[in-house]
Amino acid sequence: MAILITGGAGYIGSHTCVELLNAGYEIVVLDNFINSKPEAIKRITEITGCTFKFYYNDLLDKKSLEEIFLENKIEAVIHFAGLKAVGESVYIPLQYYHNNILSTLVLCETMKKYNVKKLVFSSSATVYGAPEKCPISENSPLRALNPYGRTKLMIEEILQDLYVSDTNWSISILRYFNPIGAHESGQIGEDPHGVPNNLMPYIAQVAIGKLKELNVFGDQYSTNDGTGVRDYIHVVDLALGHLRALEKVTYSTGIEVYNLGTGKGYSVLEMISAFEIASGKKIPYKIVDPRPGDVAVCYADPVKAMESLGWIAKKGINEMCEDAWRWQNKNKNGYEKNLHIESPHFIPSEDFLIRSK
Ligand code: NAD
Ligand code: UD1
User: Fold this and answer.
1) Gap between the Cα atoms of 18 and 43, Å rounded
2) Domain locations in the chain?
3) Of 25, 63, 119, 125, which one has the fewest beta carbons inside 10 Å?
4) Which tens digits make up the pLDDT trace of 213-234?
5) Ligand nearest to the CA of 298
């Protein structure tokens, strides 16, 4: 029995693949590399010493997805695939709705057809919009503020409707706070296209000398030092949260939503300072206007995940910065090496990938 991982070449997916393989799971991975590189798949095998089936497919391609279900005994699905850049989603909303929502519909229809009803879905704290209070619990009001956020909210609603229609489904919706850091090996990490939008990859690229200085978006918020506060979570802790959610959907039915965050907030200036210590590099910065749409403070109430999943984030801010720096330092230009892909459907092997463990 195997776990299908959609979007497994991406930032969070690749770290989750490593943890699943380390825990002895058989995995089948699907990705179309729209926001990732084949090299990530190769590195997963290098870190773990494990092989697995990889499908170079678009999740929107229903026929190819059906082939995956026919060729493998899929027991459950962890669904990471999706477009995720908030700013971009404002400019190309149709692509975001098309890719994120339609691919989830295709996935769920196919799962239903093949009687696979265990699903872990990547949602986001973005569904809380501008939170009225922190820490944010799962039953806080929901309000997405941009097309990306609305795709997450709509998918959450679709999954709720699906469960109402058939209570044999077992679904965990995971609302991530701010994933940062990298695997301790420095072999896999976050590899944004172009200039990063998010704080941690931006700081890391300043530290390595690719970017001149960090723009700090506002210092007049009602926070300790006036800069925005967020709940940063180590991507490996986040990955482990998926293993706990997978256990949950495997052994019970129902639909549940969980915050995956640490419950602690750090300001932009605190993050700069922690990164300077971790890297031994000075991070030049200047204060600029606030970024439209940003909230002052956002951090999770993670108690539900602790009580129901037995999961808690263990890694602190120093480890997050050290690991992010190791990844950046070892991979100045991310996964620059781009492997040649021959088939649009399935990459059989050689030094790239292997069909079974
Ligand atoms: P990512 O972009 O690194 O990974 C997503 C992967 O999905 C990529 O490898 C991409 O190529 C693939 N993909 C996208 N559309 C696809 C399609 N139609 N068919 C096949 N593959 C497709 O993003 P990530 O940071 O790893 O995020 C994973 C999930 O978690 C996403 O759904 C994202 O919205 C969500 N999320 C991420 C964050 C974050 O800060 N990184 C926060 C909250 C939620
Ligand atoms: C962003 C997304 C959010 C998504 C989250 C995790 C926006 C508006 N929101 O949130 O939907 O769920 O990423 O992927 O994009 N900052 C700077 N300078 C920078 C970059 C960021 O000062 O160059 C500040 C921001 O103002 C914020 C903090 O750093 O206070 C974190 O920003 P970021 O990493 O972009 O995450 P979020 O804003 O939480």
Assistant:
1) 9
2) 2-346
3) 63
4) 999 999 999 999 999 999 999 9
5) 2
CA-nearest residue for atom 4, ligand 2, is 126
End-to-end CA distance of the chain: 12
Task: Say if ligand 1 is within 6 A of residue 101 CB.
Answer: no
Per DSSP bridges, beta strands 118-124 and 74-79 are parallel
User: Residue 59: CB within 6 Å of ligand 1?
Assistant: yes
**Block mean pLDDT (10 aa), the chain, length 357:** 97 98 98 97 97 97 98 98 95 97 98 98 96 96 96 98 98 98 98 94 97 97 97 98 98 97 98 98 98 94 98 98 98 79 42 38
Ligand approaching nearest to the C-alpha of 180: 1
- Is the distance from the beta carbon of residue 197 to the nearest atom of ligand 2 less than 6 Å? yes
Catalytic residues: 148
CA of 252 to the centre of ligand 1 (A): 26
The string of pLDDT tens digits covering residues 35-56 is 999 999 999 999 999 999 999 9
Q: Which residues partner with 255 through β-bridges?
A: 171
Is residue 163 within 6 Å of ligand 2 at its C-beta? no
Kindly state if the Cβ of 265 falls inside 6 Å of ligand 2.
no
Q: Whose CA is nearest to atom 38 of ligand 2?
A: 294
